[in-house]
Amino acid sequence: MRKDPVEMLLRGLYSLVLYLLLPVTVYHLIWRGFRVREYFKRWDERYASYPGSGGHPRVWLHAVSVGEVNAAAPLVNALRAQRPDIRWIITTITPTGSERVRALWGEAIDHVYLPYDVPGSVGRFLEHFRPSLALILETELWPNMLFGCRDRRIPVYILNARLSARSLRGYRVLRPLIGRALRTVTCVAAQSQDDAARFIQLGARAEQVRALGNLKFDITPPDTTQLLQAFRAHVPATRPVWIAASTHDGEEAAVVEIHRQVRREHPDALLLWAPRHPERFLKVEALAREQGWTVATRREQQWPADASEVFVIDTLGELMAFYACAQVAFVGGSLQPIGGHNLLEPAAMGTATVTGPHLHNFAEISRRMDEAGALAICADAVAVATEVRRLLGDPHARAQRVDAGRALVTDGRGALLRTLALIGPQLPPSR
Fold this sequence. Notes:
Shape: globular
Radius of gyration: 22 Å
CATH class of the largest domain: Alpha Beta
CATH topology of the largest domain: Rossmann fold
Distance between the termini: 31 Å
Strand content: 5-15%
Oligomer: single chain
Strand order of the largest sheet: 3-2-1-4-5-6-7
Largest sheet: 7 strands, parallel
Mean pLDDT: 94
Helix content: 40-55%
CATH superfamily of the largest domain: 3-Deoxy-D-manno-octulosonic-acid transferase, N-terminal domain
Number of strands: 14
């Protein structure tokens, strides 16, 4: 195969910049470590240094953090059921993603952090684990890793692929390099026709791209029977309960004000508060106490008391179950230009859903939910407060939204089966 001189030049410049920035990655890990202690651990993996030999080839799946791991879980479980002989390596970037992998599969699946995208680390990673198939979730486009897979003839599938208009604009400087990297991929399985069109704009060939739907619709709601019974033993079903889920630093003051307004209309209302990142758990608890509210936490008290006004969910992996405990859910990451978080989870759990306006990471899902009457997209925190108060006081409106949400999730299923059919022929032969 003739080498593309433009590709070689672009890769060389890109790699040179990354090598020059490697010292900065140490400072970044230290800075993150002061916020989340887990970032101080397992640095060797981020530079692709592993003990021992890699052993047997594996199927490799990359899911950047918790949301992507959850989206991949039905696919991984289905493939493991079909082919229990396959060895898996799953990579994430965040410690919370790592914890979610361990919570779902324990030691049955190998996990390491994805190494930085410099040629040396990429080469060591691929030589150590020797993946026979690479499955990459959503929008993780690392050029050296994609080129490294091509050079080793490892088929790569980008699954549940999404690319917002904003992200497409963000790639404009690297588009000549990213476009060439994309053309090495076996298939881009996009969430929607709009996502597919944007991947083609970014440089993928039209014949590489297919719109298979969103794996998040194939969500499997957890069995909440025991948790809900225990919750109802402490919080009666007649008490107004709303949940602020996946909130970020800049949204916390808004959540406080929303709860203050909710309690003016519903004095016994309880807020379940689940910050997006673990480093916010203690800060959110302290913020709630500063308001004079009585606060309980999942780790310390386990359940709210009669006097509790705020219950902080300071654990990982329980958010979906706690959606079932609330009548109304506000999904964060949407009052700031973060792009929103998974809106299908509360819908699948039967919780009336409210969000802010910044939803570019979930543009297709939010549009479909809005059109189906399964979601209220509010312009700002004031509008969120108004809608939460309205829904808590209107069981009929809540029920309509819940029914619409559940119907939408049911109708949207199917991406999992289409994805399994797509990658099935590429699975390694049985040993």
